[in-house]
Amino acid sequence: MSLSWNEFWTVLHGLIFGSIYLLAFTGGFEAFWSLGKETMTDSMLINKVKRLKWGTWTMALMSWITVITGTYIVYTWYRAKVPTSPRSLLLANPDTALWHTFGMEWKEHVAWFAPILATAVAIVVTRYGIELAKDHNIRKCIFTIFCLAFLSAAIAGVFGAFINKVAPVL
Questions:
Q1: What is the predicted pLDDT for the residue at 83?
Q2: Cβ(13)–Cβ(69) below 8 Å
Q3: Phi, psi of 130 (to 5 degrees)
Q4: What's the sign of the alpha-carbon dihedral 70, 76, 77, 78?
Q5: Helical residues (DSSP H) of the chain, grouped into ranges
Q6: pLDDT tens for each residue of 44-100
Q7: 11, 35, 32: which is closest to 150 by C-alpha?
Q8: Where on the phi/psi map is residue 129: left (φ > 0), alpha (ψ -120 to 50), or beta?
Q9: Which of 76, 127, 132, 138 is the most buried (most CB within 10 A)?
Q10: What total number of domains does the chain contain?
Q11: What is the distance between the alpha carbons of residues 1 and 100, in angstroms, rounded to a whole number?
Q12: Are 19 and 153 in contact (CB under 8 A)?
């Protein structure tokens, strides 16, 4: 199997960076979910908060890398001003035009919420640390923002996969 340079960057952007983002979210989700348990010892709590910091910062970093490579590398090939660009192919067919008008608009704009929100969560987790286990309201608020960051990235990822299936970047 061989990949073109464009396909390599598309795989790196979506599959590799996106998978690391997903793993970081999963670890952070588990750490958030179990953070307020009453049965945790101090050493368990310290380890849990350490994992939560690593997970949230990894998620923030990977979301920035994913969005930046998507916007400034992969998307440039998508929107190229040639008749065979994926954008041109999608817009030329009324049955696939919605993939561009809605799906790519989401990816272009709303996907930027993921790194912004993930970074905000990582900063708050770093700032409050162990206090998050005691303050249910802050933990609940930050957990909600954490999940919104993931949701915006997940929807962008699904659109990216479907759009690349319909009109691949070659």
A1: 83
A2: yes
A3: -65, -25
A4: positive
A5: 5-11, 18-34, 42-69, 75-78, 86-92, 97-98, 105-109, 113-128, 131-134, 136-166
A6: 888 889 989 999 999 999 999 999 999 999 988 888 888 888 888 888 888 888 888
A7: 32
A8: left
A9: 132
A10: 1
A11: 29
A12: no
In this structure, what token pair is assigned to residue 13? 């952007």
pLDDT at position 41 is 83
- Full residue range of the structural domain in which residue 117 is found: 5-166
Terminal C-alpha separation, the chain: 14
Token duo for residue 67:
């969005």
- Report pTM: 0.89
Would you say 32 and 74 are in contact if contact means Cβ atoms under 8 Å apart? no
In this structure, what DSSP letter does residue 93 have? S
Residues shown for the chain: 170
